[in-house]
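quick one, 129 residues, struct below
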Amino acid sequence: MAPPVRYCVPGERLCNLEEGSPGSGTYTRHGYIFSSLAGCLTKSSENGAVEIYKSFRPGDIVLAKVISLGDAQSNYLLTTAENELGVVVAHSESGVQMVPISWCEMQCPQTHTKEFRKVARVQPEFLQT
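---
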């Protein structure tokens, strides 16, 4: 059976250190594990490991909201937790602009390859015609 999956955002508290162990895309602070990336959270039932799978790739154009100016380790703390926030433009490995096919996937119209992304639900009044 596949491990349970849910969506999480950077800075979200995932669990305490007694419930799991930090994995890729996470950090610890004050006895808790936090997400450092947006994506799908997977908790392994075997050892309680927490892993985050990216929903953004380098080069993506992302609509996000600034929620804090951050601290000494980061300049800004951003969120894409709202449906209207997320990837607006992404390109496939072949360099073609991808098309959103759901809230969590985009597809290359040339190769039909699908890639996971946290897709923004752009409001019609913000689209150029």
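The mean pLDDT is 79.
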